[in-house]
Amino acid sequence: MPPSTKKIRIFSFSWRDLAIFCALFGSAVLLCILLHMASSSEGFAYSIFILTVLLISRFTTGYLFGTLAAVLSVVGTNYIFTYPYWAVNFTLSGYPLTFLTMLVVSLVTCTMTTKIKRQEDLRIEAAREKMRANLLRSVSHDIRTPLTSIIGSTSAMIENPDLPEEDRLLLLTDVRDDAQWLIRVVENLLSITRMGDTTTRLVKNPEPAEEILGAVTAKFRKRYPDVRIRVSVPEDLLFVPMDAVLISQVLSNLLENAVVHGGGHTTEIRLSVRREGPEAVFAVEDNGDGIEHKVLPHLFDGTLAAAAGDMENGGKRNMGLGLSVCQAIIHAHSGSIEAHNLMEGAEFVFRLPLEQEEEKA
Asked: What class of enzyme is it (predicted)?
């Protein structure tokens, strides 16, 4: 870690940490005042402020507020809650030891908290790298197969200029379908690149869920005019904190997945959003053939390209990449995604928190 970055982590400031500091320290002062009014004892103040220093050091980032709490606790206890009251007395017995104790508590707790957060960052980065590796394996398969098909179809038309019009139209249709699939792969890759950019943060703004569903549905109907799609939204306008582009990508992937992997029997899709407590729940249901039980555990891990079931369709319409991207996007929004079979067809459900999270320092 570069020195400048380390300095920022140690002495970082955020309004969230300031609010935590003010709330905890203010509560400690108020409690000490109440106890002092009810009793003439003086020993309780040190215990309360040591606990306060511990809590502030634990729940704030870096060393700034923990150290500040230690210094103010010692000075405040001396000035307000130790005789002579409302006067600083540096000759009190044990004063240096009290200051040293609170400072050590602050530094040790801050150090442990920083290490824990660093380990969590490393764990998240390792999971992200694993996801990227799985995506690269899936992408190499997804891109190679349709390109080979495009080359084969165009070569057949070039080498056989006397092909019947019906055969030529069939080859051109295959080329168009393969090109559209490649566009979808590129869109997924752009989404992953956008999330993996460490120089920017995922920006979530409150977006009306109804408008997102409407835009995605309009785009889907242009590509699949023969598939009916029904949209269900709550009566009240539902605003969900999200990156609208990425969530639209998730919904587009799930809708296309319902058509492509419905065994050719998907004639209707139900797209809905509803509120359940502190979450917004999005659901995509279809009336296709459902999901094979052996595939269900591997839907979101990016390994479906190697599954035997995917090879039945020439490997061209592998859903591993799209669903891996969906999971990555939903997790980046602090949400969850799952899939299960229905009596007829399958359902994909993802949940997004309705409360905007505090930015971490």
From this structure: transferase
Per-residue confidence (pLDDT) for residue 5, from 0 to 100: 41
CB atoms within 10 A of CB 291: 21
Q: What are phi and psi of 351, to 5 degrees?
A: -120, 140
Q: Which residue range is the domain that position 7 belongs to?
A: 3-122
Question: End-to-end CA distance of the chain, in Å?
Answer: 16
Percent helix, percent strand, percent coil in the chain, to nearest 5: 60, 10, 30
What is the four-CA torsion angle of 92, 93, 99, 104, rounded to 10 degrees? 180
Last residue of a domain, one of 91, 122, 153: 122
Nearest to 275 by CA among 307, 219, 303, 237: 237
- ∠ Cα 10 333 337 (to 5°): 135
DSSP summary character for residue 264: T
Query: Both tokens of residue 157?
Result: 């038309």
User: Residues 111, 213: one domain?
Assistant: no
CATH of the domain at 318: 3.30.565.10
Residues 6 or more apart whose CB falls under 8 angstroms from that of 13 comprise 64, 361
Scanning the structure block, which residue is given the tokens 């390109």?
Answer: 147
> Which pLDDT score is estimated for 302?
60
Positive or negative CA dihedral for 91, 93, 94, 95?
negative
The position carrying tokens 């609208």 is: 244
Tokens encoding 94 = 């044990």
Residue where one domain finishes, among candidates 71, 92, 122: 122
3-state secondary structure of 306: helix
